[in-house]
Amino acid sequence: EDKVVQSPLSLVVHEGDTVTLNCSYEVTNFRSLLWYKQEKKAPTFLFMLTSSGIEKKSGRLSSILDKKELFSILNITATQTGDSAVYLCAVDTGNQFYFGTGTSLTVIP
Amino acid sequence: EAQVTQNPRYLITVTGKKLTVTCSQNMNHEYMSWYRQDPGLGLRQIYYSMNVEVTDKGDVPEGYKVSRKEKRNFPLILESPSPNQTSLYFCASRGPNTEAFFGQGTRLTVV
Question: How far is CA B47 from CA A22, A90, B16, B68, in A?
Fold first, then answer.
């Protein structure tokens, strides 16, 4: 059975902290892994990862994929209150997207 | 502007009354899909379509129907809604080797 597991389920940090969100997967036909941010509305796209070891970066956010160990991490440095959201990891198998249940991040001022 | 448009955004209905949630995309994507999102369960795929007249079941298809008569539209049909279909629904589309683009969501309550 294809599955995507995210950890931790929730996280509370103070502004300025650095956080690491984890995503592990087991799928039969991997094409890419995607990260989304969801703030009480539609998920918004952050990163798409297809190759191992190549870090993708956007401002304070970065992500990397390990296809041998079947996981990805999303790092957020110098967190801000605007980073508070649910972060979703998804794996694209070509036919379907499998989503994890998400990590709820709360950043306290 | 590239977008996926769902309607309605909010809907309260009664058990057994047929309803349709519309989804339209303007990016000429071949792939479209429907998801429901429930607390603690994340996003689960209901149905997907690889192209016009080609649809397939996702992980939770029971109680739902879809059709894909045109490339841009992919409506979700609940023939006889039940309270356990109360959920937040998202439509999405994607092109080859792109991310999924999501609609704004439809919050459905079945009483």
Answer: 27, 16, 21, 11
Q: What's the confidence (pLDDT) of residue A46?
A: 97
Is the minimum CB–CB distance between A88 and chain B shorter than 8 Å? yes
**B23/chain A closest Cα distance in angstroms:** 14
Q: Please judge whether B58 and A48 are an interchain contact, meaning their C-beta atoms are less than 8 angstroms apart.
A: no
Integer Cα distance of A100 and A92 in angstroms: 12
Q: Which amino acid makes up residue B61?
A: P
How far apart are alpha carbons A6 and A73 in whole angstroms? 10
CA B34/CA B105 separation, integer angstroms:
10
Distance CA B52, CA A94 (A): 17
Disruptive mutation site among B36, B99, B101, B106 for chain A (greatest number of A CBs within 10 Å): B99
Interface test with B, best of A30, A35, A95 (most B CBs within 10 A): A95
pLDDT tens-digit map of B43-68: 999 999 999 999 999 999 999 999 99
pLDDT per position as a tens digit, A64-102 = 999 999 999 999 999 999 999 999 999 999 888 999 999
As given in the structure block, the two tokens for residue B60 are 């939770």
How far apart, in whole angstroms, are the C-alpha atoms of residue B19 and residue B64?
Answer: 10
